[in-house]
Amino acid sequence: MILKDTIAAISSGNINQAISIIRISGPDAVEIIKKIYTGKIGTDKTITYGNIIDNTTNKVVDEVLINWFIGDKNYTGEDTVEINAHGGVIVTNKILNLILANGARLAERGEFTRRAFLNGKITLDKAEAINNLIHAKTNKQAEIAIAQFASKDNELIEQLEQELLNIISITEINIDYSDYYDIEQMDKNKLQPLVNALKQKLDVIINKSENAGDIYRGIEVALVGRPNTGKSSLLNCLLRKEKAIVTNIPGTTRDIVEGEFQINGILFKLIDTAGIRETDDTVESIGIERSKQAIKEAKIVVHLHDPNNKENEEDRMIEELSIGKEYIPVMNKTDLIELKDWPKDIVCISTKTKSLWELRNALVKKYNTVNLDDPEIIYNTRKLSLLKQAAISLQEASNGLDAGFGPEVVILDLTKTWESLREILNKQHDNEALLDNMFSKFCLGK
Fold first, then answer.
1. What is d(CA 23, CA 36) in angstroms, rounded to the nearest whole number?
2. What would the CATH number be for the domain defined by 7-122?
3. Binding-site entries for Mg(2+)
C-alpha cells in the first residue's frame, strides 16, 4: 500500500537523554532530509554523519548520525530515515519542528506500527504484541509480549476447528443422508461425549489463558474489611511507602487508594478500600459503595480481620461479594495474640512488624505454576474473546443434547461454534470446507 503523506515523530521519548531518535517515514522522507542535512545522503541500511541546519538561517542545530532505510525492506515498508541527535529536549524538538516545517506531518500514536501493518510487514497480532512489550512493567510481562511475536495460536485453533468440523460433518450427514447405510449413525449417546470432550479442551485453554493474561495485565487485588483492621497499613507495607493515611480512627479511608508492587516478577495492583460497615456519614457511604464495586472488579480479594473483633454481618457480606473470586482471609495484628490460637485456614500477618510472608505466598500461589511458554495459552484479547464465544455455543449444544434435542437442532449451536473459530482465523464461514470434509470421509451416493 502506497501512503501519500510523510510522517515524523520523536521515537526515543521526549525527555533529556544522551541520544534521541527522530524518525521520518513516507515517500518524501529523503527529500525532506536533503533540505536540512549537510552530510552524505546514504543508501539503504547505511549510516552517515553530518549537521542538521535551520534552512531559513543556515545555522547549525546539531551534529547527528543518520540511519537510512530506503525502499520497502524495513519496519514500516516505506522510505524511513532515523536521526540520532544529542538528546536534549530543546534540540530534539527543534529538529522535529524543522522536519515538520519542510513537509512532514506529526505522526499519530502508533502510526509507524500501523503503517507496518498496512504495508504487510507485520500481522495485527504482532502489532499488538509490540505494544504490549513497550508497556511491559515486569520481566514476566516482557516475556509474554515477546512470546506473542512467534505465536502459534492459529495452529492451536486449526486443530480445534478440525475436531469440531469432524463432529459437524457426522451430524450433518445424519441429518441430510439418514437413509444411507454406509454412514456412521449418530445419536445423543455418541454425540454428547464428542461435544463434551471438545468443550473440555476449550475450557482448559481459556483457563490457562486467563491466568496468563492476568499476569500480563497486572492482577487487581482488593484490600477489604471492616474499619480499622489495618488495610491502609497493609497497603503501605506492600508498597514500601506511606501512600495511604493511617490512624486509629475507624473510617479514615473514604475513597479508593491504589498502588502497584511485584512479587517474583508478577505485578499486583492494590486497591485499598473504605472499611465496610453501617454508617450515616454520606461521604463514607459513597466510599463503602466503591469498596463493594472494587470487590466485583478484583481478581483477588484480601479480607482483613482484627483479632479483637468476632466475625459479624459486614464480614459475611464481604464473603458473599467475594464468591467466584480468589478469596484470601487474613488475620492482621498477629503480634497481639499467640499463633496457636489462630484458625488453620486463615493467613496470619502483622503490619506492625511487617511480617507478610504468608500473604505474599498466598498471592502468588495461583500464578507461580503458570507456564508462560505453554502452546495452549492465547494472549490475544480478541482471539480469547472469540474462543469464549465458541465455548458458550458448544455448551448450548451440550445442553440441547441433555434436553433431548436431535441433531437437526444441535447443529445450529455447533455451527455457531465453528463460525467463532473461523473468525479467530480470519476466515469466512465457508460451506465448501464443510462439504469437503464430509465427502472425504464417507462414500455417499454409491
1. 14
2. 3.30.1360.120
3. 232, 253
Pick the CATH number of 135-446 from 3.20.20.70, 3.30.450.20, 3.40.50.300, 2.60.120.10: 3.40.50.300
**Model confidence over 313-356: pLDDT tens digits?**
888 888 888 888 899 998 888 777 665 555 667 888 888 888 88
pLDDT interval class at 409 (50, 70, 90):
confident
Which residues are part of a known binding site for K(+)?
228, 247, 249, 252
Domain range annotation of the chain: 7-122, 135-446
Binding positions are 23, 82, 121, 228-233, 247-253, 272-275, 446
Which region, left, alpha or beta, applies to residue 264 given φ > 0 means left and ψ of -120 to 50 means alpha?
left
Angle, vertex CA 26, rays to CA 23 and CA 28, nearest 5: 100
C-alpha cell at 420: 467463532
Write out pLDDT tens, residues 266-295: 889 988 776 666 666 666 667 777 778 888
